[in-house]
Amino acid sequence: MKFLILSDIHGDLDNLDKLDSRFKDADCVLFGGDFAKFEHEETGKPVLEKLLKKHENIFSVIGNCDNPDFLSEIENSDISVEGTLAFHEGVAICGSGGGTKFTGTTPFERDEDEIISDYNVVENSSAECGDEEGKWSNLVLIMHNPPKDTECDKIPNGIHVGSEKLRAYIEKRTPFLVVTGHIHESAGISKIGDTTVINPGSLAEGKYGWVEAEKDTDGKWSVTKADLLTV
Predict the structure, then answer these.
(1) What is the pLDDT of residues 125-141, one digit of tens each?
(2) How many of the other CB atoms lie within 10 Å of CB of 135?
(3) Domains in the chain: ranges and CATH
(4) How many whole angstroms separate alpha carbon 108 and alpha carbon 142?
(5) pTM score, two decimals?
């Protein structure tokens, strides 16, 4: 399966148009949130409208620069995986939006427990969808806020600002892929155990990602290719 990985579009419609060939080749699009430009929440709706025209299989959360009420927009557009499970060709996808509380200047900042609570649906389904230990072989998690101590959560001074609880959750449920964003300067790819974690960087800065995955004979999914790209 081929995934186009996007995050932090921040109102940039031009760079969306530059990815038409990638949209065509992708089996689905995973979007890590931030439709809107900082302090310009009205820029989110045009991004959503254009994104919906690009692909029929989009799975998304909202970011910390998006108003919490914007969640209803992506839910009504049937692309939200925030607090819910979606299934696509044998892959289970669940998401959590917003960023951890920091500056207080963006509209969707939450504490770590609130962010983790969006994965309650995974917890409730683990007995039937996971193995004997509740670990999943086909799970993708989208989280706007990155997990801690990866290549995806470093600010310019090298400090890791991601969530410890999100990292612990990844270790617990072992998704084969985690898509994150939020920290523009920390586009990167890391591993947490067998989990591939990718922050594609901000599409507003021309950055995006591409991931390919396949299922083995035992039904276990794994990432076979992960790239950071520019438009």
Answers:
(1) 998 888 888 899 999 99
(2) 16
(3) 2-230 (3.60.21.10)
(4) 16
(5) 0.96
